[in-house]
Amino acid sequence: MDIGGSGIKGCLVDLEQGRLLGERIRVETPQPSLPASVYAAVAEIVTQFEWTGRVGVTFPGVMKRGVAHTAANVDKSWIGTDVDAGLDALIPGTVETLNDADAAGIAEMRYGAGRDRRGVVLMLTFGTGIGSALFVDGHLVPNTEFGHIQVDGEDGERRASAAAREREDLSYPEWAKRVDRYLDVLEAGLWPDLIIVGGGVSKKAAKWVPLLSTRTPVLAAELQNDAGIVGAALAAHERRDG
Ligand code: BGC
């Protein structure tokens, strides 16, 4: 399951192949996106699949031991909320929660553009915000929040997210300049060996990735919009005993 600011999506996942099994179900995120209504939407989708096994759930904020610590693009009442407990009340004994970009990164590292890549790999997801997932020799450093580094006095994601491109009606070359500047600042503090760019705009990677002037190689994510769901399922499967 993938909880986002605009949609809540779920699907069964084939973990051998790292892809969705059949059609996913998507509902609009209730507005305001209060925890109780979001839990109900997640539980409803799980019920529609008649699924009783483990459920991985992504959240677009810092997630530590089941508790949400930030909520940049969803209702602020999530901050400090025990998401694991809230979901467990509706779908008992099944839930594993994690940050959405961490989930997407886990999936890309296992099945996609980061397969077999050692060293420092940074996955960035461009959507409503900018999510980040950092890997060292394939191991995740959880809850990095590089969408919020300051770029020319502003939150990085405010200027360079996919939502900023749409909001300000930027062409791909115009937006690529913003992303380039954002990556400059990121690269000044971190020397990754590879950057993987994901989110819906990764489908259009040919229009903007070649315009970037980073010293780090940049690859488009291969799982695109399914990465979050696939990574959530993988985390739920692999962390079942821990
Ligand atoms: C949040 C991150 C999240 C990203 C993508 C950011 O605003 O702070 O936790 O991963 O958006 O949804």
Kindly describe this structure.
The chain is globular. The chain is of the alpha/beta class and about 240 residues long. The protein has 2 domains: about 1-100 and about 225-240, ATPase, nucleotide binding domain (Nucleotidyltransferase, domain 5, 2-Layer Sandwich), CATH 3.30.420; about 115-225, Nucleotidyltransferase, domain 5, CATH 3.30.420. The protein is about 30% helix and about 25% strand. The protein has helices at about 35-50, 85-90, 100-110, 155-160, 160-165, 170-190, 225-240, and strands spanning about 1-5, 5-15, 20-30, 55-60, 65, 65-70, 95-100, 120-125, 130-135, 140, 150, 155, 195-200, 220. A hairpin with a 4-residue loop joins strand 2 (about 5-15) and strand 3 (about 20-30). The protein has a 5-stranded mixed sheet with strand order 10-9-8-13-14. It has a 3-stranded antiparallel sheet with strand order 1-2-3. Strands 4-7 form a two-stranded parallel sheet. Beta-D-glucopyranose (BGC) binds near residues 60, 70, 72, 127 and 131.
Radius of gyration of CA atoms, rounded to a whole number: 17 Å
Helical stretch count?
7
Span from first to last CA? 20 Å
Indicate the structural class.
Answer: alpha/beta
Explain the layout of strands and helices.
Elements: E1 2-3, E2 7-14, E3 19-28, H1 35-48, E4 55-59, E5 63-64, E6 67-68, H2 83-88, E7 95-99, H3 100-111, E8 120-126, E9 130-136, E10 139-141, E11 150-151, E12 154-155, H4 156-160, H5 162-167, H6 172-189, E13 194-198, E14 218-220, H7 227-238
Parallel strand pairs: 4-7, 8-13, 13-14
Antiparallel strand pairs: 1-2, 2-3, 5-6, 8-9, 9-10, 11-12
Helix pairs in contact: 3-7
The structure holds beta-D-glucopyranose.
Beta-D-glucopyranose is lined by residues 60-62, 70, 72-73, 99-101, 125, 127, 129, 131, 145, 147, 157.
